[in-house]
Amino acid sequence: MQVDLEPGVIRKLDEVVVNRIAAGEIIQRPANALKELLENSLDAKSSHIQVHVKSGGLTLLQIQDNGTGIRREDLEIVCERFTTSKLAKFEDLSQIATFGFRGEALASISHVAHLTIQTKTAQERCGYKAIYADGRLQGQPKPCAGNQGTIITIEDLFYNMSQRRQALKSPGDEFQKLSDVLAKYAVHNPQVGFTLRKQGEPQPSLKTPVASSRSENIRIIYGAGISKELLHFSHKNEVFKFEVECLLTQVNYSAKRSQMLLFINQRLVESPALKCAVDAVYATYLPRGHHPFVYMSLKLPPQNLDVNVHPTKHEVHFLYQDEIVERLKEQVEIQLLGSNTTRTFYKQLKLPGASDLDETQPVDKSQRIYPKQLIRTDSSEQKMDKFLADIKKSDSGLSSTSSGNDTAAFQEKSSETSCSQEESFRLIAARKAREVRLSSVLDMRRSVERQCNVQLRSILKNLVYVGCVDERRALFQHETRLYLCNTRAFSEELFYQRLVYEFQNCSEISVMPPLSLHELLMIALDSEAAGWTPEDGDKTELAASAVQILQQKAPIMKEYFGLRISEEGLVESLPSLVGRHKPSATHLPVYLLRLATEVDWEQEAKCFESFCRETARFYAQQDWHDDESSCHLPWQTEHVLFPALKKYLVPPARLRQQIYELTNLPTLYKVFERC
């Protein structure tokens, strides 16, 4: 069989065919036409935009605004391709700050529909009406009466493209898409009033007032169920030079349909990478198959944004996309960290005679679960302590902060006053919560949130405690991995953050009976941790000087942190940072000495920062106890410290250096298979 190998003849397409192909790329359905014309109206500084629709926009789509209008001289070429007032040269694309800029929207519409434009500017005495077909003005613009602004009427969309018209969905579905586009622009532009009306219906399908707010427009359009669950936050990043404003629902709300309104430099766009990142954060909180409502407005330097990558402009490219998406993901995670406190749960009582829920659940036996994939979820099943002998005091203990004689002296003092560590510290009820308005403290909180590592936070939230190694180290499991962490480093950061977030609202641990500040400082100066040398001066004078400093600053410590020192020089209370946690009495003398010498009491921000750091260091120092009381270190590590880490800690990236993966279940199975 002979094959015809003659090449085809290359021909230049007719201009009408070229224009209709281009129009089909830009105007894919009525919603695309509406988006282009809404952006033109917003560029024209309109304060009110009305949209009239018939048959889902296929028969009639009319957009009326009260903007600047179109000059009569421009009506002749306004529907020709690549005619625009936004660009003069290609380099202007790097600084574009308006919506329409390529001059293709009206031209494309005129090639696939009957287009009429009625417009009036502020300088003209009357309006003008013009009719267009295939990008050309039909006849001359005719004078007419009208208000300032523009009315664009599109009739019989795709009348000359029968395949495209037949491929569209029902008029009801197309109207829903039109409504969705208008709703998103109404949320993003609350200063503009929007109205959407079906032809022949007395009441508008959607209406928002002029000079409204985003949250109010969300309530009007999407319902009070979403608006009352909204969390608002804004963030500015100097490294990658972006700003973001976001409204997202708390974890108490979820829906089967995902709703994400994303605007980048005022443009309604889509970003699959950003959407997946946000969904990944919410997956921790919401049931499978449920989604949040998210509005996000991202501002980038125009030179970092390429707006000219898609015919419909629904997609843009920008520099540092992966890095910016990761930062936004971290910010969403930070906002949701405390969102669980707003959850409401409904309990359904079991009817008499009803079978257990587990018995009614279908079991999917088609998916095999291998032993190496099994994850222990109940920490009470097995712990490391079962396989170890009684743990003795570690040689690597932290008691090096004070000498043995110093410890004995302090313990002897406690004995004389009938004041053991367990009996001397008694919790006082917290004061009524007060709002913090000091900018220095708010800056400290923002710094904590900016440094949050989402991956490490996820590990901490879902860990299962395994056992205590010594004063500094503990083991825990996350999924199929076994980790060793520096509990001292983690707890120090935890106590620092508790001081920052409980500022002015700290509970107190009462010291009963109160301890002499001067005697405690003398014990501290006798310890090796103080580093005293004869050149520093007499210890008694140094202790007296430290007492004077602390008594002068006592009102600050009492007001902001719950550390009370009386006028007689007695330590009466310490801050309570985590429930059931008591600081080590052994390290109290050195802690008070460091408050006097290491805290910068002159500058507000440095004062709060250094005080919180010193206090956190003191609270993180715990001694290994030989007794079997409920307050010994292994018990506190398991039942006090680790639950607090899971609940409160916002881990910074630097703590990744304090956690080590020892092994994982698949690796262990490979080892055992070789044995």
Describe the structure.
This protein is of the alpha+beta class. The chain folds into 3 domains: 15-210, 2-Layer Sandwich (Heat Shock Protein 90); 223-342, Ribosomal Protein S5, domain 2 (2-Layer Sandwich); 384-662, no CATH class. It has 22 helices and 23 strands. The strands form 5 sheets. The chain has an 8-stranded mixed β-sheet. Strands 9-10-13-11-12 form a 5-stranded mixed β-sheet, with helices on both faces. A 4-stranded antiparallel β-sheet has the order 16-20-22-21. β17 and β18 form a beta hairpin. α2 (30-43) packs parallel to α5, α8 packs parallel to α9 and α17 crosses α19 (588-598). Residues 218-337 form the DNA mismatch repair protein S5 domain. InterPro entries: DNA_mismatch_repair_CS (IPR014762), DNA_mismatch_S5_2-like (IPR013507), HATPase_C_sf (IPR036890), Mlh1_C (IPR032189), MutL/Mlh/PMS (IPR002099), MutL/Mlh/Pms-like (IPR038973), Ribosomal_Su5_D2-typ_SF (IPR020568), Ribsml_uS5_D2-typ_fold_subgr (IPR014721). Keywords: DNA damage, DNA repair, Nucleus. Its main location: nucleus.
